[in-house]
């Protein structure tokens, strides 16, 4: 399979032209956002951990204009394929939102709503619904025609959906005077994450939205969910290392249910202790396991993890956060050689302690082909890997893997989400 192609013109220019051609009107606003790639920590944000995320050169762009009815109609263009269209009414999205609200069962316990149905139009309509209820859009907002030009390859673990949501949220706030200020960008990232929790079939990683909207092109975002801080570390590219996404075409991983199971456990534990996150709870592993054993005695083990499972998850959260902190320090002090053992440890822990499907065989292949190190791009949701390669050997590395029939994407350097002025 050849390398993922580089676009001849910016996605933002193409989406404006495509929207005009499809609807006959100029877009009210348009925006684009970069793909994001995970260096470490994607499953610890929910526990208040640390996540390291980079921006990639591939981008997705969105343009919209109002309709006279209540439909959110979305047309997406991707390289090498026909455009696909999806739509949903604002009434239907309101019904889905109502179905995502928690309740109380006969024993006084909080019930968990069903998994969101998802879908392209539903994800973007969910952004509109969430913004209205966060007082960022008028309640008179009706239907929209939305056009998407997506240069981010699906299945490569590059957060295409999160980038799309970030770009759309930015476009919807195109009239805001403070659109480039950090507080507004942080609020939009929160909106995207909240909406994705309710309307996306895949549990979101908040750090992707944050990085797309608040990241820096030549740096890695270091996001600490204990205090919500966003800082930046030097990009490994400056040390002669390039990063590449590698995926098996057509091979999908869908462990959304397993991820939600772990998040529900964390939610219940935080609620039991009145803590915002377990990282803010002193002696969390021991206290949470004692609480879980008490729950088993009182309510039984149905719909609850075993003590051994929970101990593994809690141990992973602590160890992964510690690894992410070490990795951040290594980047800041330019100790690039320290990255690779940490990535290897993280890969083993994801598939062992945390029990999600990684990409062990693909990691081994990348290492055999000369990668300095590799790790699952997004364990549980993608079969792809992110590999670090010496810049001097990148061409040979990518050529060999392409010849093996794999999808190879050079990530390059991205840039923060932008609004077309």
In brief:
With 421 residues, the chain is an alpha+beta fold.
Can you offer a commentary on this structure?
There is one protein chain. The chain has helices at 11-23, 90-99, 120-133, 160-172, 182-199, 206-214, 256-273, 284-299, 307-332, 339-351, 360-368, 394-403; strands at residues 29-40, 50-66, 71-77, 84-89, 103-104, 110-111, 144-150, 219-224, 229-234, 241-247, 373-376, 385-390, 407-410, 418-419. The protein has 421 residues and is an alpha+beta fold. The chain has twelve helices and 14 strands. 40% of the residues lie in helices and 21% in strands. The longest helix is centred in the C-terminal third of the chain and has 26 residues, at 307-332.
From the alpha-carbon coordinates, what is the Rg to the nearest angstrom? 21 Å
Please mark out the parts with pLDDT under 50 across 5 or more consecutive residues, or reply none.
Answer: none
What class do helices, strands and sheet pairing give? alpha+beta
Overall pLDDT level: 92
Q: What kind of sheet is the major sheet? A: 8 strands, mixed
Order of helices and strands: HEEEEHEEHEHHHEEEHHHHHEEHEE
Question: First CA to last CA: what distance?
Answer: 38 Å
Tell me, briefly, the overall form. globular
Number of E-state strands: 14
Note the beta-strand portion: 15-25%
What percentage of residues falls in helices of 4 or more residues? 40-55%
Number of helices: 12
């Amino acid at each position: 399979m050849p390398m993922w192609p580089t676009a001849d013109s910016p996605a933002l220019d193409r989406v404006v032209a495509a929207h005009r051609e499809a609807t006959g009107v100029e877009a009210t606003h348009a925006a684009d956002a970069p793909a994001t790639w995970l260096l470490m920590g994607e499953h610890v944000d929910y526990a208040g951990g640390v996540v390291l995320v980079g921006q990639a050169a591939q981008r997705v762009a969105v343009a919209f204009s109002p309709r006279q009815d209540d439909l959110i109609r979305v047309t997406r263009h991707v390289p090498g394929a026909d455009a696909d269209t999806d739509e949903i009414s604002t009434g239907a999205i309101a019904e889905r939102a109502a179905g995502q609200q928690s309740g109380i069962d006969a024993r006084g316990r909080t019930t968990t709503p069903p998994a969101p149905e998802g879908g392209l139009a539903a994800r973007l309509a969910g952004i509109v619904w969430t913004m209205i209820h966060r007082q960022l859009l008028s309640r008179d907002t009706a239907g929209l025609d939305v056009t998407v030009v997506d240069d981010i390859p699906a299945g490569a673990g590059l957060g295409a959906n999160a980038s799309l949501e970030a770009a759309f949220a930015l476009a919807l706030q195109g009239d805001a005077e403070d659109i480039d200020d950090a507080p507004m960008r942080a609020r939009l990232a929160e909106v995207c994450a909240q909406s994705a929790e309710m309307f996306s079939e895949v549990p979101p990683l908040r750090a992707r939205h944050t990085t797309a909207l608040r990241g820096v092109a030549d740096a890695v975002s270091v996001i600490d969910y204990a205090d919500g801080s966003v800082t930046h570390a030097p990009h490994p590219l400056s040390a002669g290392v390039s990063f590449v996404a590698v995926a098996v075409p057509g091979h999908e991983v869908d462990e959304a249910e397993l991820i939600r199971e772990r998040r529900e456990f964390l939610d219940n534990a935080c609620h039991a202790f009145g803590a915002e996150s377990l990282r803010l709870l002193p002696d969390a592993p021991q206290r949470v396991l004692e609480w879980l054993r008490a729950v088993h005695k009182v309510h039984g083990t149905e719909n609850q993890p075993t003590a051994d499972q929970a101990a593994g998850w809690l141990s992973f959260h602590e160890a992964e956060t510690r690894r992410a902190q070490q990795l951040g320090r290594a980047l800041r002090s330019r100790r690039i050689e320290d990255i690779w053992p940490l990535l290897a440890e993280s890969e083993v822990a994801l598939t062992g302690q945390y029990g999600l499907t990684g990409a062990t065989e693909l990691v081994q292949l990348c290492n055999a082909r000369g990668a300095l190190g590799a790790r699952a791009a997004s364990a549980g949701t993608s079969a792809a890997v992110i590999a670090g390669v010496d810049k001097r050997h990148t061409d040979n590395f990518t050529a060999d893997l392409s010849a093996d029939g794999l999808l190879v994407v050079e990530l390059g350097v991205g840039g923060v989400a932008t609004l077309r002025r």
